[in-house]
Design goal:
By secondary structure, the chain is α+β, with helices and mostly antiparallel strands. The chain is built from eight helices and 18 strands. It folds into two domains: 153 residues, 3-layer Sandwich (Rieske Iron-sulfur Protein), CATH 2.102.10.10; 254 residues, Naphthalene 1,2-dioxygenase Alpha Subunit, Chain A, domain 1. Strand 8 and strand 9 form a beta hairpin. InterPro entries: Rieske_2Fe-2S, Rieske_2Fe-2S_sf, Ring_hydroxy_dOase_asu_C_dom, Rng_hydr_dOase-A.
Length: 448
C-alpha cells in the first residue's frame, strides 16, 4: 500500500471497457429519491442562475441537490480516478468512493479493469481496503468469488441446482488509461468527446512517462465543504496571497492579464513574462507543446492545459524553485521546464514537473464533505533519502492543501447562513465562472 496520511444546512428543496453484458448502475435521467416536485424546483434553481455570480445556497447545502449532482455529474461524466503508478503490478488495486458509489480500479495482465465494489449476492462491499493486492476478489460476507475480470467463479449455493453463475458477475464501469492516468465513467453511454480531448492533452503529458513513475506519498484530506466549493477554490488564484509557501515558486499573477495587474504585483508580472518567454524557448528546443489550450465550458469534457513557468530557478515547487528530486521523469532532458498544468472538469487538476508529478482528485462524500486525494509521483529509480527528501518534496502542497481546506470550510459555513447571497466573480476568476457554467449546462441537460 502507498504511504498515506489522513486528516481527517438549508432546508431541502421540496481504453474503453465494454460493460459486460449489462448497463452500469446509473441510467440516464434517473434521479433516485427525488420527487417530481423537487425536480421541478431544482430545474427552476438552475434556470434562475445569475451568470457571473456564485450559486444560490442550496447548491452547496441541500442533500437533494447533492443526489442530483451524483447522478447528473458523477454518474454521467468521465472522472479521474487514479494513476497507473498506484497499481503498478497485476493484482494491485485501489478503491475509489464518491457519493453512493464505490469502484475497484484493478491492474490485470491485460490492462486496467474498473468494477463496481458491490457483491451480486446481497450487495456487500467486496474489497474493504483503500488499496492492496489480490488474486480473485472474494466477498467477506458469503465468500462469493470473482475473477479479476469480474466473472463469478465460485458461489457456495447448497440445493441451488439451477443457479447460473454467469448471470451474476460484478458490474463493470467504462475506463480509459491516458498517459498513465486512469479515468472512469459510470454512464451507460459515456460522453464521446473525451476521446478527442485525451488526444489533445496526451502529448503534453506523455514525455513525463507516468507508466515508469512510482508513488512517493499520498495524502487524503476530508474538507468540510461541498465538492463545488472545492473546485471553485482550485480554479482561481485570487486567494493566492493566502499560500505563502506556494508563492515562492508559483507566480501569484496566475489568472491575471495585462491591464488588471495590481500595483503590488507589477514586478512579479514582469518577471513572469520574462520567465514565460525563456520557457517557450526551451520547449521549442525540446519539441514540447506549451500553448494554452482551454475549452472549459464549451464542450462536455471541459479542459485546460498549458506549460507555464515557475518562479526562482523555475524547476519545481520549492522555496527557491529548484528541483526536489535528482531524477528526471521519462525522457525529459532539462529540469527547468516549469510545470505542465491541467484542469479537467469536474473533479481533477494536475501539476507535471520535470522531477515529479502531483495529481489531485476531489471525491464528494455528501453535500457538505469532500475527500481531496493528492498523490506525489517520482521517477521509478528515485531513492528516498538519496534522490529526494520526502518532507521537502511534499511540504509546499501539504501546506497549500491545508490552507485551501480552511478557505473551503469558511465558504461552506457562509453558504449555510441565512445572510448568504451570491456574490460576483472577479475578472481573474474566469475559470470559476467557466466551471460553474459547465456544471449548470451539464445538469440542465441531465434534468431535461
Amino acid at each position: 500500500m502507498n504511504p498515506a496520511v489522513k486528516t481527517a444546512a438549508k432546508t431541502p428543496v421540496g481504453e474503453s471497457k465494454a460493460v459486460a453484458g449489462r448497463a452500469p448502475a446509473t441510467r440516464k435521467g434517473r434521479l433516485s429519491a427525488v420527487t417530481e416536485e423537487q425536480r421541478s424546483e431544482i430545474r427552476e434553481l438552475f434556470d434562475n442562475r445569475r451568470k457571473g455570480y456564485s450559486l444560490d445556497a442550496p447548491f452547496y447545502t441541500d442533500p437533494t441537490l447533492f443526489t442530483a449532482d451524483m447522478e447528473g455529474i458523477f454518474g454521467q461524466h468521465w472522472l479521474f480516478a487514479a494513476s497507473v503508478a498506484e497499481i503498478p503490478e497485476p493484482g494491485d488495486y485501489v478503491t475509489v468512493d464518491y457519493g453512493p458509489y464505490s469502484l475497484i480500479v484493478l491492474r490485470t495482465e491485460e490492462g486496467v479493469n474498473v468494477l463496481h465494489n458491490v457483491c451480486r449476492h446481497r450487495g456487500a462491499r467486496v474489497l474493504t481496503e483503500a488499496a492492496g493486492t489480490t488474486g480473485n476478489l472474494v466477498c467477506g460476507y458469503h465468500s462469493w468469488t470473482y475473477s479479476p475480470e469480474g466473472a463469478l467463479v465460485h458461489a457456495s449455493a447448497p440445493g441451488e441446482a439451477t443457479f447460473d453463475k454467469g448471470c451474476f458477475g460484478l458490474k463493470r464501469a467504462h475506463s480509459r488509461v491516458v498517459a498513465g492516468l486512469v479515468f472512469v465513467c459510470l454512464a451507460a453511454e459515456p460522453p464521446e468527446d473525451f476521446d478527442e480531448v485525451s488526444r489533445i492533452f496526451e502529448p503534453y503529458l506523455a514525455p513525463h512517462e507516468l507508466s515508469s513513475a512510482k508513488v512517493a506519498f499520498q495524502q487524503e484530506l476530508v474538507e468540510e465543504g461541498n465538492w463545488k466549493l472545492v473546485m471553485e477554490n482550485n480554479r482561481e488564484c485570487y486567494h493566492c496571497d493566502g499560500h505563502p509557501e506556494l508563492a515562492c515558486s508559483l507566480f501569484p499573477t496566475w489568472g491575471l492579464t495585462e491591464g488588471i495587474i495590481p500595483p503590488h504585483l507589477e514586478d512579479v508580472w514582469d518577471r513572469n513574462v520574462q520567465a514565460d518567454q525563456a520557457l517557450k524557448d526551451r520547449c521549442v528546443r525540446y519539441g514540447l507543446p506549451y500553448e494554452v489550450l482551454e475549452e472549459l465550458d464549451t464542450r462536455i469534457a471541459g479542459y485546460r492545459i498549458s506549460r507555464e513557468p515557475l518562479d526562482g530557478a523555475g524547476e519545481s515547487f520549492s522555496a527557491s524553485g529548484r528541483r526536489l528530486s535528482k531524477k528526471l521523469l521519462g525522457d525529459l532532458r532539462d529540469f527547468r521546464l516549469g510545470r505542465c498544468s491541467m484542469h479537467l472538469q469536474p473533479n481533477s487538476w494536475f501539476h507535471f514537473m520535470s522531477d515529479h508529478v502531483i495529481t489531485f482528485s476531489a471525491f464528494p462524500i455528501n453535500e457538505h464533505q469532500t475527500l481531496v486525494r493528492t498523490t506525489w509521483l517520482v521517477a521509478d529509480d528515485a531513492v528516498e533519502g538519496v534522490d529526494y527528501d520526502l518532507e521537502t518534496l511534499t511540504y509546499t502542497w501539504k501546506q497549500t492543501n491545508l490552507q485551501d481546506k480552511n478557505f473551503v470550510e469558511l465558504c461552506q459555513r457562509g453558504a449555510a447562513s441565512p445572510a448568504y447571497e451570491p456574490g460576483p466573480y472577479m475578472k481573474s476568476e474566469y475559470q470559476v465562472e467557466a466551471f460553474i457554467n459547465w456544471y449548470v449546462q451539464r445538469m440542465q441537460e441531465h434534468l431535461a
